[in-house]
Design a protein that fits this description.
mainly beta, five-stranded antiparallel beta sheet, three-stranded antiparallel beta sheet, globular
Length: about 160
């Protein structure tokens, strides 16, 4: 659906474990391995055909000054994938080696970006499916959006 905003991402464990309190001993970090649809506000970048990956230095908490009075910094990569239907069963992957974070689709590397000083910390794996905040030509909101995940594999090299 053009209103879909599916995501596969990692988020700071320290922030999750401190909730609901604010722990400013370490800035937050977020790696959106796949956050498709987020750029579809005018209807030309649907989640089924447009890939987005983002690394955050200090994910925003919704306030102007940011989490712990530090604004969010981002590195973003996006691209159209017109010959691929991302609504099928693609295999998404993220590879994190040292300071380099790379996104893959069906075993093909899409991009790599350097992390931030806040990236090197334990992270929680998350999946989400949200409605976009706005999508002008997308028609009415569907009553339900569904994100299905067939399998997940996580490994760490010693």
């Amino acid at each position: 659906n053009p209103w879909a905003w599916p995501a596969f991402w990692l988020y700071s464990s320290s922030t999750m474990e401190a909730w609901p309190n604010e722990d400013c001993s370490r800035l937050t970090s977020e790696w959106d391995i796949m956050e498709n649809g987020v750029s579809n506000g005018v209807g030309d970048r649907p989640a089924s055909r447009w890939h987005v990956s983002v690394i955050h230095r200090n994910t925003t908490d919704g306030t102007p000054e940011g989490h712990c009075d530090q604004p969010d910094e981002m590195r973003t990569y996006s691209r159209a994938l017109p010959d691929t239907n991302l609504s099928d069963w693609p295999a998404w992957a993220g590879r994190w080696r040292g300071n380099q974070l790379c996104s893959y689709l069906d075993d093909v590397q899409l991009q790599c970006m350097d992390g931030f000083d806040s990236t090197d910390q334990p992270m929680h794996l998350q999946f989400s499916m949200l409605y976009l905040k706005t999508c002008s030509p997308c028609g009415p909101l569907p009553p339900e959006l569904k994100l299905e995940v067939d399998w997940v594999r996580v490994w760490q090299q010693p």
